[in-house]
Write a structure and sequence with these properties.
Chain A: Belongs to the binding-protein-dependent transport system permease family. CysTW subfamily. The complex is a heterodimer of chains A (457) and B (457). Chain A has 457 residues and is mostly helical. Chain A is 63% helix and 5% strand. The two termini of chain B are 57 Å apart. The chains are: A mainly alpha (457), B mainly alpha (457).
């Protein structure tokens, strides 16, 4: 049998043998290219995953130490000589509320003017006799915000005046920095933040166990503070963020779901619907800062809502999240098989009944997932909040959404800009860890809900 | 507490109304011996709507106008000299409010204040009583009206569904309203800016030096857009140089090479990058990436600033990787399998198939994804605020500090409530520029991606 190579029909073509040679010659190169291409792809993914690792690693390494903080437990003498205040006023029958409030205010003022530094110095002198003669150095050892802690203790229970209580006081930020080694100890003295005496005291107290690295509850129970960095905390920011997330949940999710239902099931297919469609897709890609401009112009300038208030932040974030919720809800409505709807229509349900009794319940898990992811996104958003004044320094916990407040991402922005860099770098990282932990929890919840309740058809 | 009781009362009343409607429809059906047009649920709901909506309208009107009316009535109690002086008027009004609420006021209380407070108390009582009565009457009338129309032929379901549909349409309209709001607010403020500064000077100016608003209108600064736009473009180019190769290769590997297991693990890991808030990237760029590059630069004898276009661009690129990869992944997996099979049948290797067949087929979609990524990079704010260095100069050196459109919006508008100076209004002109740029990119990209999807459907 003659092989095809020898048939005269192919005489004009290059000989198959040489053709095969060409292929074989190139094969090694082609396979090499194939391997290179493949490994580039794998490399790209590994690079991406490695970057996730580097990002989390660097934040964790910086931030985790900030969750513990140099804290000293001292026997504090509430000395009536120093804390010389009258009885706390009570509301008399003959007084109006305004008069009582004024009396209380002047009592509080007396309390605030007590020389708390002296109280602290006296208690420090119990463990460090030298502190009795160095008032300045002694006051610099303890975070200045801790004076307020002592004051609050007396205000809550004036009867402790005259007693001695063991109180754990947060050490000053510079002491914390010194003990954690976040400052170069070999720097000349004029570049150090602590005086020579304070450095010796810190080391001595740390060795004796008076100063220990305790969990920093201040980070979660205090509000931001400028004068006392060591006790600056996230409470106000967390409450503000929670309020804004609730507003997003209450505003964006119902509106988004209802808009999705209309667009997916009831909207006639015409140019107006097309326009809404393009518009929603476009809104999802509009930079978040533009929503901040909208908030500044409409909510603050036009409607006169207060600056820095969670209500404004929540509304701006709701508008920003709305397209995400609409798109996710439409996708999950579309994922419900049409046969369900057709069956409902077939037994006489109206389109509205088919929707609300049959399609919607099946789409709820997907919608919920989309809503949670949208809320998580809103939680991390910073830029629009800066434009509605949320970068203002706020040292209070908001009790209503109309009050001034901070927010977690904005607090991170403010802390990263603090001048006390070697203390706040860690504290900012700790705040980031808190933010990421909340976001990861939310996303994990979304994934859990999806896996638990989503039906595959 | 009070509000909760009110809400509870309203809910109880509405549920009673609902019950009444439902049971009426049943009894009508029974006595007439016919089937009703709709199920009892709808008669109940219809009664609830007729009860609640008119009453709510009345209440909203009341809360819009009542405070002004009451205020003007109280104002008539003030003597002319107090009412004429705005400052005295405000303080008198707040004292009267305090007196009326029983909180009391300090110091001597003039007779007219006491009278006004008494009048205010009684006025409030009357007003509250009147509005409660009015709301109740309107609610009852509405309910009775709806009740009177219940009959076997009455199409309650259609009416209720009409109301629901109106609600759904309103919700979808909010998405449109947001865009209209953005356009109108940003445009009107930008136009106000252009009354201060010639648009030609703004769009083609090469110097950005706005000065401070406090220097007065005499010493107006230079508002040249080009340095900012150039900073934005440079950072976007750097970001794309990072994100597109890595993202595209990752997408190719994930969709063409990776096994199901590898894909299941690595895809979510990569997408973690997309969920991290941008403020976290900004902080990462500022404290980790910037010093790292600056260190490398110093080792090579180059002057690399820690905050520069390069740092911001690289970190922004990292942020966009998952965005590019998941969009491209979607698009590549939409290329029909038959095209791959045809290519393999001709003896091509996988990488040859990808490069010569799949990528050309997917190109339009990938271009769309690329444009969306560019729009993302142009509008990104927090990374550049922290890491780009904020120095609005025209420079071709990526290792120098630059400024961008978004950074300048934040700088010009944060904490400033003064909407009258060109220094803060310029933020809206910049926002308008940003919105138009991203709008064009988005619309083109969405159009391309949509056309591409239709091509293979």
């Amino acid at each position: 049998m003659a092989s095809t190579a020898e048939t005269p029909a192919l005489a004009g073509a290059p000989s198959p043998r040489s053709n095969r040679d060409v292929v074989e010659q190139n094969l090694a190169r082609r396979h090499r290219n194939e391997a290179i291409f493949r490994f580039t792809g794998l490399g790209a993914i590994l690079v991406g995953i490695a970057l996730v690792g580097v990002l989390f690693g660097s934040i964790l390494i910086k931030g985790v130490p900030a969750f513990t903080q140099a804290t000293m437990t001292l026997e504090v003498d509430f000395d009536p000589e120093i804390i010389n205040i009258p009885e706390r006023p009570v509301l008399q029958a003959s007084q109006s509320v305004a008069e009582y409030e004024q009396a209380l205010l002047s009592w509080r003022r007396r309390l605030a003017f007590v020389n708390w530094n002296k109280v602290i110095q006296a208690s420090l002198a119990k463990v460090l006799p030298a502190a009795a003669d160095n008032a300045r150095d002694a006051a610099g050892m303890i975070a200045s915000g801790e004076r307020i802690k002592l004051r609050d203790m007396v205000e809550a229970d004036p009867s402790i005046v005259g007693t001695t209580q063991a109180v754990s006081l947060v050490a000053a930020a510079n002491v914390d920095v010194w003990l954690k080694g976040n400052i170069d100890r070999t720097l000349p003295q004029h570049m150090q933040q602590l005086s020579k005496l304070q450095q010796e005291w810190s080391d001595e107290l740390y060795q004796r166990g008076v100063i220990s690295m305790a969990f920093s509850t201040a980070l979660f129970t205090n509000v931001d503070s400028r004068s006392s960095p060591a006790t600056a905390g996230l409470l106000g920011a967390i409450v503000g963020s929670v309020m804004m997330m609730l507003i997003v949940l209450v505003v964006a999710v119902p509106i988004g779901v209802m808009a999705a239902i209309y667009l997916e099931e009831f909207a006639p297919k015409n140019r107006l619907t097309d326009l809404i469609e393009v518009n929603i897709n476009n809104l999802a890609a509009v930079p978040s800062i533009v929503f901040g401009l909208l908030g500044a112009a409409v909510f603050i300038n036009f409607l006169g809502l207060p600056l820095s208030a969670p209500i404004v932040g929540g509304l701006v974030l709701s508008l920003m999240t709305l397209p995400t919720v609409i798109i996710a809800s439409r996708a999950s409505l579309r994922a419900v098989p049409p046969s369900i709807r057709q069956a409902a229509l077939g037994v006489g349900a109206s389109p509205m009944q088919a929707m609300f009794h049959h399609t919607l319940p099946l789409a709820v898990p997907g919608m919920l997932t989309g809503a949670i992811i949208g809320v998580a996104q809103a939680l991390g958003e910073t830029a629009p909040l800066l434009l509605i004044g949320m970068n203002a320094f706020v040292a209070s916990v908001p009790s209503t959404p109309m009050e001034q407040s901070s927010a977690l991402p904005v607090q991170i922005y403010l802390w990263q800009g603090n001048e006390l860099r070697n203390f706040f770098e860690a504290r900012t990282s700790a705040a980031i860890i808190v933010l990421l932990a909340v976001m990861i929890t939310l996303n994990a919840l979304a994934i859990f809900l999806r896996n638990r309740f989503e039906r595959r058809w | 507490m009070n509000t909760l009781i009110v809400i509870a009362v309203i809910l109880i009343v509405l549920s009673l109304v609902y019950q009444w409607g439902a049971s009426t429809s049943r009894s009508v059906a029974r006595s007439a011996g016919v089937k009703m047009h709709s199920r009892p649920v709808y008669y109940g709901l219809l009664l609830v709507l007729w009860c609640a909506i008119p009453a709510a309208v009345v209440y909203v009107l009341y809360s819009l106008f009542a405070p002004t009316i009451i205020n003007s009535m109280i104002l008539s109690y003030l003597p002319a000299d107090v009412a004429g002086d705005p400052q005295a008027r405000v303080s008198a009004m707040s004292r009267i409010q305090n007196l009326a609420s029983g909180f009391g006021a300090l110091g001597d209380v003039p007779d007219y204040e006491r009278q006004a407070a008494r009048a205010l108390t009684s006025l409030r009582w009357t007003a509250n009583l009147a509005i409660v009565a009015l709301v109740a009457v309107v609610g009852v009338l509405g309910t009775l009206f709806a009740r009177s129309r219940i009959g076997p032929e009455y199409r309650a379901r259609n009416r209720v569904e009409w109301a629901i549909k109106a609600l759904l349409i309103t919700c979808s309209a909010i998405a449109i309203l947001t865009t209209v709001g953005i356009v109108l607010s940003v445009l009107s403020e930008a136009l106000r800016f252009f009354t201060f500064v010639n648009p030609i000077d703004f769009f083609f100016g090469t110097v950005w030096n706005p000065r401070f608003s406090s220097t007065g209108s005499g010493g107006q600064g230079d508002f040249g857009l080009l340095p900012l736009l150039w900073g934005t473009i440079m950072i976007t180019i750097i970001a794309m140089l990072v994100a597109v190769p890595v993202g595209l290769m990752a997408a190719i590997y994930l969709s063409e090479y990776a096994g199901a297991k590898f894909r299941f693990i690595s895809k979510p890991l990569l997408e973690v990058l997309a969920g991290i808030p941008t403020i976290v990237y900004g902080f990462f760029a500022l404290v980790t990436v910037g010093p790292f590059f600056s260190g490398i630069g110093a080792a090579l004898g180059l002057d690399v600033q820690a905050t520069s276009a390069f740092t911001a661009g690289i970190v922004m690129g990292i942020m966009i990787i998952p965005f590019v990869s998941s969009l491209s992944d979607d698009i590549i997996s939409q290329v029909p399998q038959t095209m791959r099979d045809g290519s393999y049948g001709l003896g091509a290797t996988r990488s040859e198939t990808i490069r010569k067949v799949i990528l050309p087929a997917a190109l339009p979609g990938i271009v769309g994804a690329f444009l969306l990524a560019v729009s993302r990079a142009v509008g990104e704010t927090m990374i550049v605020v922290l890491a780009a260095g904020n120095s609005p100069v025209l420079t071709a050196n990526p290792f120098e500090a630059v400024s961008t459109v978004t950074v300048t919006i934040v700088n010009q508008l944060t904490g400033d409530t003064d909407f009258a100076s060109p220094q803060s209004l310029v933020a809206f002109a910049l926002g308008l520029t940003l919105f138009v740029i991203t709008l064009c990119l988005n619309v083109v990209a969405i159009y391309i991606v949509k056309k591409y999807r239709e091509q293979y459907e």
